[in-house]
Inverse folding.
């Protein structure tokens, strides 16, 4: 049983405060979805959890099973059981996924695992062509292939807690289903998931225990899966005050936000017909 | 024949040098040229950023004592299947083994004398003139026209004795429509010596040559090398350099697209550690239309090492429909390391596509972060990123055997680097 506890977290990137006093707790077997408009701090939260250089923690703590992670380098956080599936997985020329996972597992003392065959199995189960595993990491892969590749790595590494930063973007409906179902199986085996997404469609296949709305660096509301459905219907309008609206940011989800405007402040409608 | 008493490297016994009296006269002419020109200075553009003013020729003995062949180093396993193996040690040709009828080697006689200076003539520069004057073991490798030499030709230049200066001269003559791969392997232990190789390459019409130079000198040796390839109509040359050692290791590389439809690929991997200085000067000269050249140089500077790259793409007025590209990237792994990259274009024809790009910077933090998120320890992640940085150049090397060995050496260098910290 593992628990990732985030308490009063403040994160600054450059000279901008992006995350402003955030509390969140994810335990083994749970799925927590974090949803919010563009620019609300979702990816910053994911990067801060993994200790990406340039993301400065200014307040609060991030703990895994009571141990503070903030002073640890990224790789040690990963070795303790965290995993980040990236929104835009970085291309690493000349380095294969097999070699990467072998070195990662070797450093954890798990060098008896046959990484090549495990990767093959996982790739097949989520419909990633196995010949793509021979390529350098994420090089010349489509957006969807990159996300499947992230999922395959997640399944081979078997972390305690996985942060999925928009895993669904770039995935077609079949790929989304196979990746989500694979992750669902992992959650049944005890994986805790912090799932950042814009859309409900991922949560149709990966049942969320909790949905959190992140606006302007803070969680403004938490609830059950029904909250995601409400967002799908009404958008974020009721969670946003005009002071919180980031510049040029769309606050709509699908086309539904147009209806949502009646209950919120006067927001720019990104779907408005400019010729009307 | 009387020695010239005021030669830049003292006075060789001319009668000891190979060649007819006519050839010895040309040698003397070259030596005279070098003496008159004198050593270059770092104030000259071609020698900017270099430690050339520190070179004291009087420190070195102009000798060619020969010696036993040394271990294979990075060329391990290559001798067994080579089309030819030529071993030159401390200025002496020690052995020549030829396993392919299409390969002919001349180390003396009119064929040698005619070939030497055919691409790099007397008067080119101080070091090439010294080389003409003092080369003790010139070697000409001729590939018969219409022949395909499937296995690589291995040419080894070993330097094993301190304080000597020697001048290897290699000429490669690719007959029309021939194909071959040459691997030149330069080695030395930790000794202070001076080696100034000149490599003349003629690629005949429609011929295809892959030429790889692997330099694994010890940390104290100075090398000042010149390589010039002349590529005729519809011919192709690939010139690759792997530079791993030397105190000051310079390579000037000229690819002349002399015939229409000619093409060249020029690549390098260099890895500087401690106080090593790598210096590359490249010239992509397009003299004919429909010609192509593509250059990719990648290197690492670590510790207190330095790397200099300057490159010129020159398109002559008659060279229309030309594609010429030049990329230099250097990773800087330590605060004290230094690298300079100066690309240049001189274009005198409008119908060309040219680009040049250069960058000196630290390793890609995003790549390192990605690997770390999988749990790869920071130092291993950094090593992987560095290794991956060289991957595209390594993949293009003409020998898989040596490419694997170099990849292994790079992994070793990066790991060694970590151990020192």
């Amino acid at each position: 049983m593992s628990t990732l506890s985030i308490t009063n977290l403040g994160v600054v990137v450059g000279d901008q405060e992006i995350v402003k006093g955030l509390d969140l707790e994810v335990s083994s077997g749970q799925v927590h979805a974090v949803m919010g408009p563009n620019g609300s701090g979702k990816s910053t939260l994911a990067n801060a959890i993994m200790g990406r250089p340039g993301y400065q923690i200014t307040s609060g703590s991030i703990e895994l099973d009571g141990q503070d992670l903030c002073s640890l380098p990224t790789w040690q956080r990963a070795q303790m059981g965290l995993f980040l599936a990236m929104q835009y997985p970085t291309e690493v020329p000349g380095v294969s996924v097999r070699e990467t996972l072998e070195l990662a597992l070797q450093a954890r003392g798990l060098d008896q695992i046959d990484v090549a065959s495990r990767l093959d199995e996982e790739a097949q189960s989520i419909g990633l062509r196995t010949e793509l595993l021979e390529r350098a990491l994420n090089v010349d892969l489509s957006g969807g292939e990159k996300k499947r590749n992230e999922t395959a790595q997640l399944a081979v590494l078997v972390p305690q807690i996985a942060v999925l930063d928009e895993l669904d973007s770039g995935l077609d409906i079949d790929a989304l289903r196979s990746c989500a179902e694979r992750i669902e199986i992992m959650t049944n085996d005890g994986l805790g998931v912090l799932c950042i997404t814009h859309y409900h469609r991922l949560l149709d296949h990966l049942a969320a225990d909790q949905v959190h709305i992140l606006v302007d660096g803070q969680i403004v509301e938490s609830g059950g899966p029904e909250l995601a459905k409400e967002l799908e219907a009404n958008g974020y309008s009721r969670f946003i005050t005009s002071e919180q609206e980031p510049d040029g940011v769309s606050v709509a989800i699908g086309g539904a936000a147009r209806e949502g405007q009646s209950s919120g402040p006067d927001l720019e409608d990104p779907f408005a017909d400019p010729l009307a | 024949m009387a020695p010239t008493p005021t030669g830049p490297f003292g006075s060789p016994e001319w009668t000891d040098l190979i060649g007819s009296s006519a050839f010895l006269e040309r040698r003397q002419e070259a030596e005279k040229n070098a003496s008159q020109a004198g050593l270059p200075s770092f104030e000259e553009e071609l020698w900017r950023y270099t430690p050339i003013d520190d070179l004291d020729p009087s420190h070195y003995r102009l000798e060619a004592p020969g010696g036993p062949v040394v271990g294979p180093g990075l060329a391990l396993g290559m001798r067994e299947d080579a089309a030819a193996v030529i071993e030159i040690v401390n200025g002496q040709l020690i052995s020549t083994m030829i396993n392919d009828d299409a390969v002919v080697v001349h180390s003396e006689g009119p064929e040698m004398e005619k070939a030497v200076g055919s691409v790099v003539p007397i008067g080119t520069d101080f070091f090439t003139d010294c080389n003409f004057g003092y080369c003790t073991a010139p070697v000409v490798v001729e590939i018969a026209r219409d022949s395909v030499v499937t296995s690589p030709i291995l040419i080894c230049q070993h330097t094993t004795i301190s304080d000597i200066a020697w001048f290897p001269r290699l000429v490669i003559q690719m007959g029309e429509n021939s194909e071959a791969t040459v691997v030149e392997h330069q080695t030395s232990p930790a000794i202070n010596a001076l080696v100034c190789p000149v490599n003349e390459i003629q690629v005949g019409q429609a011929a295809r040559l892959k030429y790889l130079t692997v330099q694994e000198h010890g940390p104290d040796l100075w090398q000042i090398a010149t390589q010039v390839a002349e590529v005729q109509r519809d011919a192709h040359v690939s010139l690759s350099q792997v530079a791993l050692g030397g105190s000051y290791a310079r390579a000037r590389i000229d690819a002349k697209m002399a015939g229409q439809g000619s093409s060249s690929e020029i690549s390098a991997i260099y890895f500087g550690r401690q106080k090593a200085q790598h210096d590359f000067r490249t010239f992509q000269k397009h003299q004919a239309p429909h010609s192509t050249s593509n250059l990719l140089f990648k290197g690492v500077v670590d510790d207190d090492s330095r790397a200099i790259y300057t490159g010129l793409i020159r398109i002559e007025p008659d060279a229309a429909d030309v594609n010429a590209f030049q990329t230099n990237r250097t990773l800087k792994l330590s605060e004290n390391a230094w690298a300079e990259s100066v690309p240049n274009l001189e274009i005198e024809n409008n119908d060309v596509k040219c680009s040049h790009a250069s960058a000196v910077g630290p390793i890609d933090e995003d790549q390192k972060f990605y690997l770390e998120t999988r749990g790869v320890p920071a130092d291993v992640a950094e090593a992987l990123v560095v290794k991956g940085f060289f991957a595209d150049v390594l993949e293009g090397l003409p020998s898989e055997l040596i490419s694997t060995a170099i990849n292994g050496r790079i992994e070793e260098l990066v790991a060694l680097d970590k151990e020192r910290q």
Remarks:
- Chain A has two domains: 3-234, 235-276.
- Chain A touches chain B at residues 50, 52-53, 73-75, 78-79, 83-84, 86, 89-95, 99-101, 103-105, 107-108, 136-137, 153, 157 (CB under 8 Å).
- The longest strand of chain A covers residues 16-27.
- Residues 248-276 of chain A have pLDDT under 50 and may be disordered.
